[in-house]
Amino acid sequence: MAEAGLVIVDKPGGMTSHDVVARVRRIMRTRKVGHAGTLDPMATGVLVLGIERATKLLGHLALDRKSYLATIRLGASTTTDDAEGEALSVIDSVKLDAVRDNDIDDGVAALTGGIEQVPSAVSAVKVDGERAYKRVRAGETVELAARPVTVHRFDVLARRRGSDGYDLDVMVDCSSGTYVRALARDLGAALGVGGHLTALRRTTVGPFGLSVARTLSALEERAELSLDLDSAVAAAFPRVDVDARVAAAIGYGQRVPAAGVSGTYGVFGPDGVAIALMVDSGESARSLVVLRPS
């Protein structure tokens, strides 16, 4: 049996997240592999995978903040809001040349902070139980409702005018559920010239960044975890240490006194081993996931 823990993959372009999971199953020699949030095939960067018992962590990981490096091309909109879609409109160079730096800055500022964002039609948002992108590919017209997201940071790092359009290299730090493709679309629409994404690289997911990510080739050469189960829990959750008596009670699924910690926290026994993920409920605490039953 493979050791339990997290593998942080630096996903290559051209692969789906499911493709990466299938590859890591072969590399780690286990069927128990899951991912915490997908990346589009075009995108590269941080993809968090759980191995063996660590798959139980994935639904509880505090991955509510993500960072990206991206390139937005102004001057054309597409069916998918990125370079993989078909062109819907292409603006002539004269109109594109009329877009000034301060217009772009104003457009970026309007898309920063708490905003209402309509996800891309080819997103993974479910419509009547089915992913929106599947409905679009089946020829349906999908209209998604706007939903609140937070763009903590939206910085333009570089600007390049070329024959194919006006490219902006940007850094985006945002809440989970934010679509960078939709930011490109909405910025282009606000400027009246259209826009789409031509490159996307995720640099962080929650506490996990590219510094601990490994390529699939590196994993092929040396199949090992990025973080073992104990290190993963310590990195992703507040830590609470308990004595042997409380640890045994938790292992048997019993309630124990509240720790006074807000949200989900990891509980560690006197030997430094992660026992469970727990949450306070009044004066007692209840287990969300028991990682090592007694």
TrEMBL record:
Protein name as catalogued: tRNA pseudouridine synthase B
tRNA pseudouridylate synthase B C-terminal domain residues: 181-222
Active-site residues per Swiss-Prot or TrEMBL entry: D40 (nucleophile)
Single Gene Ontology BP annotation: tRNA pseudouridine synthesis
Domain of life per record: Bacteria
Gene3D superfamilies per the UniProt record, alphabetical: Pseudouridine synthase (3.30.2350.10), PUA domain (2.30.130.10)
GO terms assigned for molecular function: RNA binding; tRNA pseudouridine(55) synthase activity
Gene giving rise to this polypeptide: truB
Pseudouridine synthase II N-terminal domain: residues covered: 25-180
Xref: HAMAP family: TruB_bact (MF_01080)
Residue stretches making up the tRNA pseudouridine synthase II TruB subfamily 2 C-terminal domain: 237-292
Function: Responsible for synthesis of pseudouridine from uracil-55 in the psi GC loop of transfer RNAs.
Keywords, ordered alphabetically: Isomerase, tRNA processing
Similarity annotation: Belongs to the pseudouridine synthase TruB family. Type 1 subfamily.
Coiled coil region boundaries: none
Phylogenetic classification of the source organism: Bacteria, Bacillati, Actinomycetota, Actinomycetes, Pseudonocardiales
EC number(s) stated in the UniProt entry for this protein: 5.4.99.25
SUPFAM superfamilies assigned: Pseudouridine synthase (SSF55120), PUA domain-like (SSF88697)
InterPro entries: PsdUridine_synth_cat_dom_sf, PsdUridine_synth_N, PUA-like_sf, PUA_sf, tRNA_psdUridine_synth_fam2_C, tRNA_psdUridine_synth_TruB, TruB_C
Enzymatic reactions: uridine(55) in tRNA = pseudouridine(55) in tRNA
One Pfam family this sequence matches: TruB_C_2
This protein's record includes keyword Isomerase: yes
